[in-house]
Design a protein that fits this description.
Elements (H helix, E strand, L loop, with lengths): L1 H55 L6 H13 L8 H9 L4 E2 L6 E3 L9 E2 L1 H18 L3 E5 L4 H10 L19 E5 L5 H16 L3 E6 L4 E6 L9 H11 L1
Parallel strand pairs: 2-4
Antiparallel strand pairs: 1-3, 4-5, 5-7, 6-7
Helix pairs in contact: 6-7
Amino acid sequence: MRVTLLLMLFALTPAVAFGAVSQTRVTRVRTARLRSTHRVRWSRARLARLRSMILASPVHGTRDSLVRQNERINQENLERIQDDDQLAGLIDSEDLVRLPETRELGVAQNLPVLRRYTRPWTRDFVEDFASSHFDKFHRGFQVTSAVRTVEFQHQLIRRNHNAAAEVGDLASPHLSGATIDIAKHGMTRKEIQWARQYLLELQNKGFIDVEEEFRQAVFHITVYHQYSEPAPMEARAQTESSGN
């Protein structure tokens, strides 16, 4: 009798174990599916929020804007800087000038010294913008990117697929030295709204083109030589006073 019971117990044990394993696998599959569903829903919700944020900005970036920036750069006969040797030559000739670092304006610490330069009119713009911002909010902001070379942009594209091209109608305007990125990180909602209005007015006057970026939280701004010409000074002053 005991032998029979033992034999029956041994016969049942694999089936019970198999049932437990099967139930565990089902649970794991269901959990994985739930997690996948949550990820998809979260991703869709995030994209929807991102789209709404982009559309809410009057200065969000577009393909047409990037094409226009390159056209204006061509009209101003600005070369696309190929490498560090050409960059150094433009610095020596003072075709590129160093960005100031003050209480009103900071430069990202991870930006190499050689790439903390811009065209003189771009420096004029960023100093004016920083001064108006400081008068309004009593604190500074930070430039995260300025001049780049084709050589650097090529390397950037290899590790960042969202980076602009190094040649063509959609090339990065940073290659001309006329463009800067200003960080939105740390700005309040009021600061961002103020910056949008300030930049939009200058864009409407043809002094700059601006793209508010969201994947990288920056204002991308290309400044045109016209900004520092004597004639527009009065119009610029009106923009700065309205920004305050």
